Amino acid sequence: MNREKIMNLIGLTLLAACFAMALTRVFSRTATHLGSDVVTIRFAHYQLESGVRGAFDAIAREYEKIHPGVVVEQMSIPENVYPTWTVTQLAGGTAPDLIEYGPSTGSDERLARYFQPLTEWVGSPNPYNKGTSLEKTPWRQTFLDGLTGWPNYNTNLLEIYGMPNTVVTIRFFYNRDLYRKITGNETLPRTYQEFIEVCRKVEQDGERITGHKVVPIAGSKSNAPRITESLFCGQVQKLWAQYQGDDLRQANGNEAVLRFAVLKHKLSLYDPAIQSAYQITHDAGQYMQPGFMQLNREDAVFTFTQGNALMIATGSYDTVSLTSQAPFEIGVFPVPSPTRDDPVYGKFVFGPATEAGAPTQGSFLLYMESKHKQQALDFLRFMTSQKMNALFAAKSGWLPAVIGVDVDEKMKPFMPEMDGYINGFRPYWGADTYRVIDNNQYLLLGSDGSVKKFLDALGKDFDAALVSDSQSVNKTSRNNLLRQDIALASYMQLSRQNAVPAAAKKVSELNEIETKLELDLDDGILEMNELGFPPMK
Amino acid sequence: MPATLSPRKALHEWQLYLFLVPSLVLVATFMYFPAASAIYHSFFDWQGGDAARFTGLANYRRVLNDVVLWRSFETIGILIIANIIKLIPSILLAVLIHRLGSEKWQYWYRVLLVLPMIVPGLVRLFIWKFFFDPNFGILNKVLDFTGGKTLLIALDHHFLRWGIFHAGVPVPWLSESHLIVPSLIIWGFPWIGTVGVLIYLAGLQSIGTEVYEAADLDGVNSFQKFIHIELPLIMTQVRLSLVLLIIGTLQGFGLQFLLLGANGGAGGSGMVPGLWMFNRAFSAGEFGYACALGMVLFIFILALTLLNNKYVRVEK
To answer: What is the mean pLDDT of residues A453-460?
Structure first.
């Protein structure tokens, strides 16, 4: 055989070997699903932080031990592609049994269309809490927030959809060594003014002391909003309260009131409170590294762990990642917000916001078309039992979501701060207003940015975007109503025939949901008609 | 002209046509069905899933008034022109490799060109994203080292008046509205596409040596050889590249999505029609409208391809 033939044969063999390997890997993954007795539960999430996958894996293995014949498979999807991946899976009918709540799963439309409401099951105790202090407690009440708000309870659909694993709070993580070197002490800032003082000191003396450029805050398009939104919401506390009136008692408030106030020009983006809110976010932006708006979360973490930034604002979920990557000791403190005494920003605030409403998160939703719905629901109960949540917290380093689970000493600074006031509103109200604000943020947060430039640029685009978002809200309400109509009609028929004992109760619940949806829709249509816009796109 | 077969003769071995069926089924399923579904759903208010409400031409009427879409065509126009200019380095490199005297060196240069193809396109995009990093990226470091930054500051101060280049402040390539389109143009420097070079090389290698000998005898210099011999004889390949380039640029949005996000970056400067289609589908949940946008884009691409075929002639 000549040399050329031998080379060709080697090439062909390599190609065949790679193909065989690929085939084996693909088929071995699906082979476990082919056994007729094996039930496979798949759950998908986007938490790629250190320890979390291991924690979920441990829970899955514990479940498999007590349920032979069930295989639990974890799917970890990168955060960047999670929204697209989820939507594609849902639209294609191939979604896993349990999906983590995330961007693109949470709209009313998607929740109502693709996910099973869990309301009918949360009133009963979780059987996996047997032998614990929560043995007789309804499943819903075993969570720290009682599943009263976003993302688990949807106030438009009046249903519970998500079962959480953790509580997330936002903190500043800081480099203790660097902090000591630059400030000369270990006293943490307690007020907004003290915080700004620390930032100024880093800017003035950081390079001289350390020998290299140091920025006060490592920012990115993911991390910056942790600070900027918190500061913005603080500045519009009084404004929010003014528009909510009695509705302050509601968990989420009524953002439609604000939307229409802006559209009717009763509330302007140039309102002093809103201008102050944008001003404070501009000020915070000046202490982040140049060009931070184009950076991802990983870039900000890199800047911080390389010692090029003193602080980074992120959620408690990043504790393990940061402590494992950073070669220095890390401390934490809450995001300081202005108090009423603040000479510059105190005018529009009640005070620091409470974290009592910090929602439980890392929630899983049950896919409505799941082939093993009951088994998936059972796994959800197991995952959110006290014992398994304790395992999850221990392995992931995250805060627990279930009552009675001990919190590790090093996680205690992340526990929600209960004292405080209600927070204000976020500066966007839908996909289009978010896009317009996102597109113009560089005029606010850039080194040459200003509130005036930013607000002037928002101009007509923002009004058009607000109209579009309002139309989307109305359309979603209408679609949800249509969907509920079918369920209501079915249960009414069953109730008349006395075919299903719980049908009458379900009719009553659905009537309540429909009434709220109809009221919201009627309000929305009326408002849009008054403004002279089509109520829906 | 090929001899024509009578239908009787053509269908004599009709069983052989059955071998085409699997390929046709695959093409129909994975290429024609999605396109047909998109055309169908463009007439619906569809938010994904199976619920869709027929709205007739409402989506198309909305397209006519879609300011963001028409603005995105301005951006794509600039990118198409830039990409046409970016064809030149590939053509020049192909000519240079073709003119190498040694076949061995020609082979090695081809290998060197092909090797980077093993790096996935996504990885290259991430590397370029890192290049654009204002604090650690190589682009800013090169500008500082070569004095290019000083030139940009002077240019900004005297002509551009954008107010974005400052001494001691890193250039924020992807978070400044005025710099987004230049960044999208700079991406991929030195703009040498492996496949393009190989296609042009294949075309150049079909030119006989006697043509070059005749040119040498007539005293033609290198540049004249390129203009009068090589370029005309590879125009078929250039035309093909042009068609693929226009289609690819019009449809493409992966680069903009990765570098700038689904909203098109600062000022929406990086918004292109493909990205707007993605934004409407996955950010706003308006799948039906996104299908209508796709149809409009298809019409544009078809029109430009027809223009290209009509006016970019290849003289046989």
So the answer is: 91
Q: What would the two tokens of residue A324 be?
A: 């494992």
pLDDT band (50, 70, 90) for residue B283:
confident
Tell me which chain A residue has its CA closest to the CA of residue B164.
Answer: A448
Under a CB-based contact definition with an 8 Å cutoff, are residues A126 and A142 in contact? yes
Confidence of residue B315 (pLDDT cuts 50, 70, 90): low
DSSP A190-225: -SHHHHHHHHHHHHHHHHHHHSS--EEEE--TTTHH
Residue pLDDT, tens place only, A363-420: 999 999 999 999 999 999 999 999 999 999 999 989 999 999 999 888 899 998 888 8
Give yes or no for a contact between A311 and A218, defined as CB atoms under 8 angstroms apart: yes
Helices (H), chain B: 7-10, 21-27, 33-41, 58-64, 67-85, 87-98, 103-114, 121-131, 138-146, 148-155, 177-186, 194-205, 209-217, 222-225, 231-233, 235-251, 254-260, 273-278, 287-311
- Measure in Å the smallest separation between the Cα of A305 and chain B Cα atoms: 14
- Of the candidates A90, A442, A537, the beta carbon closest to that of B266 is on A442
State how far the Cα of B26 lies from the Cα of B40, in Å rounded to an integer: 20
Best to test chain A binding among B135, B136, B178, B271 (most A CBs inside 10 Å): B135
SS3 per residue for A264-288: CCCCCCCCHHHHHHHHHHHHHHCCE
Adjacent-strand bridge partners of A171: A314, A334
Taking only the tens place, the pLDDT of each residue in B57-94 is 999 999 999 999 999 999 999 999 999 999 999 999 99
Residues of A in contact with B175 (CB under 8 A): 291-294, 442, 446
- Taking the C-alpha atoms of residue A199 and residue A311, their distance in angstroms, rounded to an integer, is 9
Buried b (16+ CB within 10 A) or exposed e, A216-239: bbbbbbbbbbbbbbbbbbbbbbeb
Selecting from 3.90.950.10, 1.10.3720.10, 2.60.40.420, 1.20.1300.10, what CATH number does the domain B63-101+192-311 have? 1.10.3720.10
A113 to B163: CB separation less than 8 angstroms, yes or no = no
Please name every residue paired with A39 in a beta bridge, in sequence order, or none if there are none: A70
Say yes or no for a CB contact (<8 Å) between A113 and B264: no
Q: Do A432 and B284 touch (CB under 8 A)?
A: yes
pTM, 2 dp: 0.83
CB distance A313 to A226 below 8 Å: yes
Tokens of A61: 């293995």
Could you report the predicted ipTM of this complex, rounded to two decimals?
A: 0.82
- Give me the total of CB pairs closer than 8 Å, taking one residue from chain A and one from chain B: 101
Give the residue on B whose Cα is nearest the Cα of A84. Answer: B282
Give the closest-approach CA distance of B62 to chain A in angstroms: 9
Q: Establish whether the linkage from the previous residue to B7 is cis, with ω within 30° of 0.
A: no
Would you tell me how many other CB atoms lie within 10 Å of the CB of residue B56? 9
Would you say B172 and A290 are in contact if contact means Cβ atoms under 8 Å apart?
A: yes
Structure tokens at B218: 């007539």
Distances (CA, A) of B206 to B112, B114, B202, B212, B229: 22, 21, 7, 12, 12
Q: Say if B169 is an interface residue toward chain A (CB within 8 Å).
A: yes
Please report the DSSP string for B95-109 in residue order: HHHHT-S-HHHHHHH
CB proximity B160 to A under 8 Å? no
Fill in the amino acid letter for A368.
M
Domain ranges of chain B: 63-101+192-311
Lookup: tokens for A157: 């659909």
Question: B264 at the A interface (CB within 8 A)?
Answer: yes
**Contact between residue B294 and residue B42 where contact means Cβ atoms under 8 Å apart:** yes
Question: What is the Cα–Cα distance from A534 to B12, expressed in whole angstroms?
Answer: 63
The answer to whether B56 contacts chain A (CB < 8 Å) is no
Distance CA A248, CA A234 (A): 15
* CB count in 10 Å sphere of residue A240: 20
How far does CA B110 lie from the centroid of its chain?
Answer: 22
